[in-house]
Design goal:
By secondary structure, this protein is mainly α. It is 84% helix and 0% strand. The protein is elongated.
Amino acid sequence: MDEMGTQNRIEDLRSRVDEVDRELIRILNERARIVQEIVAIKAEAGKPLFDPRREEEILQKVAEQNQGPIYDTSMREIFGLILHRIRDLEVQREEFR
């Protein structure tokens, strides 16, 4: 592949990465909104907001459904961070009420 072809291919791939990033942002925010609904329902019912068993189920499913190339342990860490940050969002929301 010549220099121009190489550069075009790189630009095409970067454009696809940008599209995936936009979709990830949309999906993560959708997930956070759904979790906010769950939290509201739990709070209204007087149920505990955090369920460590449910979180472990999620992380286990993530590893089982992962087809790579990201390692299962890394995928669990990524999702663990997502879960933690969404939980932080709820804590912050409560602080400002």
